[in-house]
TrEMBL record:
Residues covered by the BRCT domain: 52-135
Cellular component terms (Gene Ontology): nucleus; site of double-strand break
Organism: Anopheles melas
PANTHER family, per the entry: SMC5-SMC6 COMPLEX LOCALIZATION FACTOR PROTEIN 1
Full protein name: BRCT domain-containing protein
Domain of life: Eukaryota
Region (Disordered): 26-53
InterPro entries, per the entry: BRCT_dom, BRCT_dom_sf, Slf1, TopBP1_BRCT_8
Biological process terms in GO annotation: DNA damage response; positive regulation of double-strand break repair; protein localization to site of double-strand break
Gene3D superfamilies for the chain: BRCT domain
Length: 280
């Protein structure tokens, strides 16, 4: 059965502010495909043409909204509809079909981190207010958190954590857009074993960034599928036996703290995996 919870939970350095769905089997499946609205290059928002102020995204934009009061979300949704954009299907959880995420300020909820991992545009809600006033979707860069072109346009972020998340969002979007090796997302090339509670949350996060989660549970020592992994992420509350740990290490699989995922997505420079390596 499904058990829904809206409480904030800090797991692996990630504050899961979005709705959790527990007791779901973590499926070994590829990155979810975006909807036709997110990939249709022929259907475009009004006033694009050669207008240098118009939206850079090609096709119909699909917006997710994060971290705003309900009445603000409803107002933003109306403006999106009037500008001929679309709203993400699930208001409480990351939708892989979305192309842009609107927020009052960056946060480290599941929806936001999944968007960063996928290289989505992370924009201030001011973007939609100004676009509505202009009558068409504007160029995103002047409203993108972490983008140097947005300096002076957006409200200054006060906390170091917010600044770090904003910078990471911009860095990952541009990296994923330009780096062939990361074209599917921040976790392209990752084949992952998870030894964590609330496993389904991390499955969604990794899949959003192009990672592949192996549906294998401990013990790993005699599993050929487990030995095909590139990483094994372990939560401090979970238990990985010394036999499994040694077998994974001998197979060249990085056995790291789950905290590595948070640092990997939100640090200005890619973190050194050795700093997160767990002792046998």
């Amino acid at each position: 059965f499904l058990l829904f919870s809206f409480a904030e939970v800090n797991v692996g350095g990630v504050v899961w502010r979005e709705r959790d769905i527990e007791n779901i089997q973590a499926n070994e499946s590829p990155k979810p495909k975006a909807s036709k609205a997110a990939t249709n290059d022929k259907k475009e928002s009004p006033v694009r043409g050669g207008n240098p102020l118009a939206m850079k995204h090609r096709g119909t934009p699909v917006f997710a909204i994060s971290g705003v009061p309900e009445h603000v979300r409803l107002e933003l949704a109306k403006k999106i509809e009037q500008l001929k954009g679309e709203l993400a299907s699930d208001p409480n959880r990351y939708d892989p079909a979305c192309t842009h995420i609107l927020c009052g300020k960056p946060n480290r909820g599941e929806k936001m981190l999944s968007g960063i991992a996928a290289g989505k545009w992370l924009l201030s809600t001011k973007y939609l207010d100004d676009s509505f006033e202009a009558g068409y979707f504007l160029d995103e860069e002047c409203y993108e958190w972490g983008n140097p072109k947005a300096v002076g346009k957006l409200t200054a972020l006060a906390s170091a954590g917010d600044l770090e998340t904003a910078a990471a969002a911009y860095t990952w979007r541009t990296r994923i857009a330009n780096d062939v090796g990361k074209q599917d997302g921040a976790f392209t090339g990752f084949r992952v074993l998870l030894v964590v509670p609330k496993k389904d949350q991390f499955v969604r996060l990794l899949q959003s960034g192009g990672g592949y989660v192996l549906d294998v549970d401990p013990p790993f020592i005699h599993s050929e599928r487990a030995m095909a992994a590139t990483h094994c992420f372990v939560d401090r509350k979970a238990k990985l036996s010394s036999e499994d740990h040694r077998a994974l290490a001998e197979a060249g699989i990085a056995v790291l703290s789950i905290m590595y995922l948070n640092a990997y997505l939100t640090s200005e420079q890619l973190p050194d995996p050795n700093s997160f390596q767990l002792p046998i």
